[in-house]
Automatic annotation (TrEMBL), chain A:
Ion transport is among the record's keywords: no
Residues of the DUF112 domain: 21-437
Keywords: Membrane, Transmembrane, Transmembrane helix
Native source organism of the sequence: Roseovarius halotolerans
Segments passing through the bilayer: 20-49, 61-82, 147-163, 169-188, 200-224, 258-279, 318-342, 354-377, 389-407, 427-446, 467-489
Protein name: Tripartite tricarboxylate transporter TctA family protein
TrEMBL record, chain B:
Protein name: Tripartite tricarboxylate transporter family receptor
Family membership: Belongs to the UPF0065 (bug) family.
UniProt KW keywords: Receptor, Signal
InterPro entries linked to this entry: BUG (IPR005064), Bug_dom1 (IPR042100)
Domain of life (superkingdom): Bacteria
UniProt signal peptide: 1-23
Lineage of source species: Bacteria, Pseudomonadati, Pseudomonadota, Alphaproteobacteria, Rhodobacterales
Entries under SUPFAM superfamilies matching the protein: Periplasmic binding protein-like II
Coiled coil spans: none
Organism this protein belongs to: Roseovarius halotolerans
Length: 502, 325
């Protein structure tokens, strides 16, 4: 079958009203699900799954993909408006989105988040269609040693999100690494820092830590000093994102999308690290470097491009290898199997009409996301107008409910509050929370992949240098670390010079 | 109102409650705890049976995923619940026979639960990468003797961890833990990928987890542990190789309540499951995913799990695989 034939077969499959309805409904469900803290895109997809069993395979899968894509964008809405990421992937969006909302530019931040998400989504889908085979075989070269070096490199992000003091950033990261060690040891299965409690055996729940670290400190600060915010503008205003903004951020958006595509095509990384990596790269390259973390629209664009860039690309290992790249695609693979479809190389031969149908649907989904997202922003923007004394207590209720709902476990709510106090004291002593979070995500991955590498090689260190991919990451890690040290040295010398002058 | 009337009303009300307690179980929705994450094998199985089961029960089933620590967190939630039949658990081979056999630190034992059914059996298959040059169990055993063989699992105390060791031992490797290296990964998907990209030499896991890789010729099956062949898996069965002991090595999903579950409640579940598993829709969905539907009564289920646990426990003790501390 030629390309045109396959395309037409695909078109015939999705060229009906149900498929488009399912896609649109999916995006809408995803945006709303993602916007509810604690609900997260994963849960939204899992809850939609049973409804797809009775549908045509392509319709059902498009519905789930719509939920996925909508959810990843939807998470940015509460991240910007109430400093509570709706999904883990949108935690990087907080860094600049929330300061913008505080400044009365919530509309601009949300608009940029949407435009960046849609652009990244489109790039990601195109990458899937054009490079699926090539990227998949590349991704298959990623064993534990390659992962280890990639994550080692990713840890250099910490320098980018540390704010003014690298030392404070490092302190925050060490704290995150420490808490990430709680749970069962990967290789021996023994308990680590669980203090005999079965609840601790699973480690600290990621969403509980996330919400505790970002949203709860705001609530505590409000309780501490209920009138501190008075006099600050916090309305949405008429400020909407302009095309000039978009053009200025375009490079960061494309770079973020590429990072997303790259990390998305490798199974097991996920959208959150990608968003942070995209953010720190944008900051490194930007002219407005100093403004990052204080409400820079380019920061929002980069984070959202980073996480939505993953969404299409995670389907690369799924379709080309049959390997789910993250939790969400693991659920989607279930939908394939229920319909008797087996993702993998053979699917490109046996069910090529479904593959092309999916491709067409995915491209359309980016357009749907744009319109449904615009509508959602219009709906949610009133949150920014709610007086803070009313908003904050409702956020607290939402956080408690959301964290409980993740696992139906009251212990997680306790974790959230404990982390809330940690976050509050970090905030008071100007210790940034983002490095904590990055270390909390990447720390266990670094450890696991290191130990897996050692197991597979029989404790031979040379496995960490086994091929071009590892060399590449070692090189960029060293370059980045040297650059960070030099920048730090220069900053210190400037301060010294200024002191001499003064 | 005199004191007497109050007492009378009180006594009457108490009487009403007592009658209510004796009324037909169930009189309110039943909480069903799934100790694994959404979209996993247990979750899909649980949500598929929930449909016909809910009809049979006549009251809503409230499904909740309580995840963490390889199924332990959710299991503990049911262990500590009151045994009134309103909090039940979807138990799985990992959480209720491999983990108890392997982990001394587990906060529960099999005695803390009463099984009301096992309804799904998942055959286990072993597979290798086609480019490894291994085409049969004999090839694999020869390779193990040369050294450097690894196998992947979804974590310590998972079925995959035990399966790799058990299969090698059945094929005459005296000390499989020394002869082959176990590489634990995070989750079943990652474990299969490890064999796909050459990180590990072989994997033994539920056939449904391997089905798509086998169909796509990305992985080559070399053994299935059931006596019957598994559709789509062109590999010798445990009967073909004459090792009936391997038939113990299967995955399953069942339903359990806390230890003190009354007999009449267990009997009720037996009836409901008999109705639910006859559902056509349920049967097609499950068999398409590679499961074998085999309904066990409460007694059969308890005996089945006990036997499997003892087999595993014996192996774990012999090999010194038990995780202490």
């Amino acid at each position: 079958m030629s390309f045109i034939d396959s395309l037409l077969a695909g078109l015939a499959l999705v060229g009906n009203i149900e498929a488009f309805l399912a896609l649109g409904a999916g995006v809408a469900i995803g945006v709303i699900g993602g916007a509810i803290p604690g609900m997260s895109a994963t849960m939204a997809v899992a809850l939609t799954l049973p409804f797809t069993f009775a549908m045509q395979p392509i319709t059902g899968i498009l519905l789930l993909l719509g939920v996925y894509k909508g959810g990843i964008f939807g998470g940015s809405i509460p991240a910007i408006l109430i400093k509570t990421p709706g999904t883990p992937a949108s935690s990087a969006t907080i860094l600049d989105g929330y300061p913008m909302a505080e400044r009365g530019e919530a509309g601009r931040a949300l608009g940029m988040a949407l435009w960046a998400s849609c652009t990244a989504d489109l790039i990601s889908n195109l990458a899937l269609i054009v490079f699926a085979g090539w990227l998949a075989s590349f991704a298959l070269n990623f064993g534990p040693p390659e992962f280890f070096t990639l994550i080692l490199f990713s840890l250099t992000i910490i320098a980018g999100v540390s704010g003014d003091s690298l030392l404070r950033g490092a302190l925050s990261a060490v704290l995150g690494l420490l808490l990430a060690t709680i749970g069962l040891d990967l290789v021996y299965g023994t308990n680590r820092f669980t203090f005999g409690s079965p609840d601790m055996m699973g480690g600290l729940n990621f969403i509980a830590v996330l919400i505790g670290l970002f949203a709860i400190p705001e609530i505590l600060a409000m309780a501490w000093n209920p009138t501190a915010h008075l006099g600050k503008t916090r309305s949405l205003g008429n400020k909407w994102v302009t095309f000039a903004d978009y053009r200025r951020c375009f490079r960061s958006i494309v770079r973020g999308s590429m990072i997303g595509v790259f990390l998305g095509s490798i199974p097991g990384i996920g959208a959150a690290p990608s968003a942070f990596l995209s953010y720190s790269e944008a900051r490194r390259k930007s002219k407005n470097k100093a403004n990052f973390g204080k409400g820079e629209v380019e920061g929002v664009a980069a984070s959202e491009a980073g996480n939505n860039g993953v969404a299409g690309a995670t389907l690369i290992p799924l379709l080309a290898l049959g390997v789910p790249g993250d939790v969400i695609t693991a659920i989607i693979i279930g939908a394939f199997m229920v319909h008797g479809l087996q993702p993998g190389p053979m699917m490109f031969v046996l069910n090529v009409d479904i593959i092309y149908g999916l491709f067409i649907g995915l491209i359309v989904s980016s357009i749907f996301l744009f319109f449904i997202g615009t509508a959602a922003i219009r709906g949610f923007k009133y949150v920014a107008d709610i007086p803070k004394r009313l908003l904050i207590p409702s956020v607290l209720v939402l956080c408690i409910y959301g964290v409980f709902a993740v696992n139906n476990n009251i212990f997680d709510v306790g974790v959230m509050f404990a982390m809330g106090w940690v976050g509050y004291f970090m905030m008071r002593y100007h210790i940034p929370a983002a490095p904590f979070l990055i270390a909390f995500i990447l720390g266990p991955l670094l450890e696991d992949n290191f130990r897996q590498s050692m197991l597979m090689s029989g404790n031979d260190w040379m496995v960490l240098f086994r091929g071009p991919i590892t060399w590449f990451f070692w090189t960029v890690t060293i370059i980045t670390v040297v650059a960070i040290i030099r920048a730090g040295y220069r900053a210190a010398r400037n301060i010294g010079a200024n002191r001499l002058k003064g | 109102m005199t004191l007497k009337t109050i007492f009378t009303v009180g006594a009457f009300a108490a009487g009403l409650t007592a009658t209510a307690a004796l009324a037909e179980y169930p009189e309110r929705p039943i909480n069903m705890i799934i100790p694994y994450g959404a979209g996993g094998a247990t979750d899909i199985s649980a949500r598929t049976i929930a449909e016909p089961l809910g009809t049979a029960v006549g009251k809503p089933l409230v499904m909740a995923n309580v995840t963490g620590a390889g199924g332990a967190t959710g299991s503990v939630a049911v262990q500590n619940a009151s045994p009134d039949g309103y909090t039940m658990l979807f138990a799985r081979v990992g959480s209720h026979s491999v983990s108890p056999a392997m982990k001394a630190t587990l906060p529960y034992t099999l005695d803390d639960f009463r099984f009301v059914t096992v309804y799904e059996i998942n055959p286990v298959a072993c597979a290798v990468n086609p480019s490894s040059g291994i085409e049969s169990m004999e090839d694999l055993v020869a390779k193990v003797k040369e050294g450097g063989v690894t196998y992947s699992s979804s974590g310590v105390g998972s079925l995959l961890h035990l399966a790799g060791a058990m299969v090698l031992r059945e094929f005459g490797i005296e000390d499989p833990l020394e002869a082959a290296t176990h590489i634990p990964l995070k989750g079943g998907g990652a474990a299969a990928t490890a064999v796909l990209n050459g990180t590990a030499t072989f994997i033994c896991t539920n056939s449904s987890a391997l089905a798509s890789f086998v169909a796509n010729e990305q992985l080559n099956p070399i053994l299935v542990t059931t006596a019957e062949p598994v559709p789509g898996f062109d590999a010798p069965t445990s009967a073909d190789v004459g090792k009936p002991q391997l038939e113990q090595l299967v995955g399953w999903t069942g339903i359990a309540g806390p230890a003190g579950l009354p007999d009449d409640v267990a009997a009720k579940w037996g009836e409901w499951m008999a109705t639910a598993t006859k559902d056509e829709d349920f049967l097609t969905k499950m068999t398409e995913r590679g499961s074998v539907i085999e309904l066990m009564s409460p007694e059969e289920a308890n005996e089945f799990i006990e036997t499997q646990y003892n087999t595993f426990r014996k192996l774990v003790d012999e090999l010194g695989m038990r995780v202490e501390g």
